[in-house]
Amino acid sequence: MIITIVGGGSTFTPGIVKSIALRKNELEVDEIRLFDLDKKRQDKVGILVRWILDEDLKCGIKLTITYDAEEAYKDADFIFAQMRVGKYAMRELDEKIPLRHGCVGQETCGCGGLAYGMRTIFPMIQVIDDAEKYAKPTYWILNYSNPASVVSEACRKLRPDARIINICDMPIAIIDMVAAALNIKDKHNIVYDYYGLNHFGWFTGIEYKGEDMMPKIRDYIMEQEILLPSAYLKDKAALAGKSNDNKTNRHAKGSWYYVWKGVYEIMKNFPDTLPNTYLNYYLQQKEFVEHSDPNHTRANEVMETREKNLFDGIDKYLASGEIDETVFYAGSHGDWIADLAIALKNDTKARFLVITENKGAIPNMPYDAMVEVPAYIGKKGPEVIAQDNIPLFQQGMMMQQLNCEKLLVEGCIEGSYQKVLEAFTLNKTVPSMKVAKEILDDLMEANKEYWPTLK
């Protein structure tokens, strides 16, 4: 059993590896391979990964660190993809360029998300082609690479038969917050209903051991005026972004405060569902631009905390032999993808939230829409749980976003400036076609090294 991690130099790699290693028996994993194009970065992360496997857990799993596609994919059973094309330098531009034009600056939503998507489409297709060429015929690609909505649409269009499942851990992070807010320790007993597109969806039901928890979480949010556990609200330094302590949940620092505060603002107006936090960027565009700092965005926050902590921790280990486990994140992000692999391998029919072709699952959405819905996972892949017709408000928002993403993918594949401009103009975070064109032209210049030529 071989698991290959594409984007092996990611700061999330150590946590994912730990999740895999802790499930060694269920996965029957013999070898983990790290594959990245950035040798310097991956070599450093590999030092920590080797410590986890050989010193911390002493689990006997072989580690291979490689920069060669054939070696990375040869006979692999699972490929965990977590690429960040352009790394944080490009994420910073994704966020700051739209903000310069008075629009939301976010890495996966709005114009920044469209820019990031155009950088990621063809590298993801390359991952699929390499897996087809070298991996076992029964391989599965489990993709975390963002923006998953754009990536999944491109894969559907260009490689419809690929054995790939696109997933996102943000709904899980939201459930983590719900569990902590309601003091639920065994969150695995939470069952939720959800529908939407990736980073664009709604929880319609949350149950814990058969009890409907939606009234309780709604009351909690209305009382606290935020979706954060009361313990977090006491740590004002962390919430203000002044704490560099990695023990604080990474989704509760700095600008994340406004995201969780935004859940309250949305539910004041639309109380029937619990929104995915990313809906803030579409429903509160003006407000999020107003409290954003165009010179210091979340990209900077991450570089100053998670990135810095990890690589400083590795340098300290190399210098002193002392390891500080708080420098890397282990938890839901890694657990989610490792548990999904177990469900596929062992045919458990466990319930997961996945991004998949609609095919009637949401009756009043297009058949070929890539939607995010619950599914039972077995060896043949997702068995989607059918939904009812969704309300017109949500359907209208989803159709606008879906068509925006479809136009972007078509424009990227065809090299069509016109279609990409239409995608930017259609995005709900953009106020006019003039602004859409200005942002697109600036992002085109910034992405010359990564985007296909648009004519």
From TrEMBL:
Keywords, alphabetical: Glycosidase, Hydrolase, Manganese, Metal-binding, NAD
Signal sequence extent: none
Source organism superkingdom: Bacteria
Keyword Glycosyltransferase: no
Cofactor binding: number and manner: Binds 1 NAD(+) per subunit.
Cofactor: NAD(+)
Start and end residues of each Glycosyl hydrolase family 4 C-terminal domain: 194-430
InterPro entries, sorted: Glyco_hydro_4, Glyco_hydro_4_C, Lactate_DH/Glyco_Ohase_4_C, NAD(P)-bd_dom_sf
Similarity annotation: Belongs to the glycosyl hydrolase 4 family.
Subunit text: Homotetramer.
Annotated protein name in UniProt: 6-phospho-alpha-glucosidase
Organism lineage: Bacteria, Bacillati, Bacillota, Clostridia, Lachnospirales
